[in-house]
Amino acid sequence: MTDDLRFTVLGSASPYPRAGNPCSGYLVEGAGTRLWLDAGSGTLGALRAHIRLDELDGIWISHLHADHCSDLLTAYYGLLYADVELAAPVPLFGPPGIADRLAGFLTNGPRRSPVEDAFQVVEVRDHHRALVGGLALTSRAVAHGMPAFGVRVETEGGASLTYSGDTAPCEALTALADDCTVLLCEADYARTPQAGTEAVHHTPEQAGASAAVAGAQRLVVTHIGPSLDPEEAVTRAGTRYDGPAEYAAPGRTFGVTGQAGKPRP
Predict the structure, then answer these.
(1) What is the pLDDT of residue 263?
(2) Distant-in-sequence, close-in-space partners of 86: CB < 8 Å, separation ≥ 6
(3) Are 23 and 11 in contact (CB under 8 A)?
(4) What is the pLDDT of residues 115-150, one digit of tens each?
(5) Counting Cβ atoms within 10 Å, is residue 259 exposed (0-12), middle (13-18) or buried (19+)?
(6) Is the model's pTM score more than 0.90?
(7) What is the CATH number of the domain that holds 134?
(8) By CB atoms within 10 Å of each CB, which of 67, 78, 161, 252 scores lowest?
């Protein structure tokens, strides 16, 4: 099995799309497998520039805020009622309750919309592990004030991508990212919240610190808040992290290569 892994940024805006930049979404490809990682507003159109919906091997959703999952609604219609030949429902990994949440939006009459006809729903939990084609996925519950998860995607050859989803700095994320090839970490906050206010995101400095604690080989900051300049966010992350740091610019593809190392946490 090849150790090649790459991800394409479909969008990295927060909390709503910007001109030319959808919300959170990534196409992860490796080991003959294609995974849609988060389906934020506007990412379906960007995804279709690369693959058809029926070419997906799976979808993984970090949490149920609209800027990470709303394009599942239009994907549902595309999978069932458009130009897609669906041999079987697409595996959909997401937080508990994701199927009923989708059905609540999609149902327009007395009969519940058949979400399961489009998606083979798997509810993730802390330390959840799954194989999607040639990719191994490990999910961890993270600190976002609601059910939310980060994920580590690995090839058999040792390439590893850890995606934070949305979270405040937490031990679960740094454990998940331990010695990973790339940490794709959100940096939404321009500044640390005031004392007494619950933190649910990273600042750029905290993204750098999480990468340093995890021993990540490379940091890519994403989910940049509207009051932050992306290049400033990269610079600020670099004050806490000595490795290479970059911005998840929409449309960019990042290669992820690595050697077999530590086992998944």
Answers:
(1) 42
(2) 53, 54, 79, 80, 118
(3) yes
(4) 999 999 999 999 999 999 999 999 999 999 999 999
(5) exposed
(6) yes
(7) 3.60.15.10
(8) 252
List Cβ neighbours of 190 (8 Å cut-off, separation of 6 or more).
Answer: 203, 225, 227, 228
Q: What range defines the domain where residue 244 resides?
A: 5-256
Cβ(149)–Cβ(127) under 8 Å? no
Tell me whether residue 261 is in a domain: no
Is residue 215 domain-resident? Answer: yes
Token look-up 């798997």 returns 122
Q: Which pair of tokens denotes residue 213?
A: 């604690």
Instruction: Please give the tally of structural domains in the chain.
Output: 1
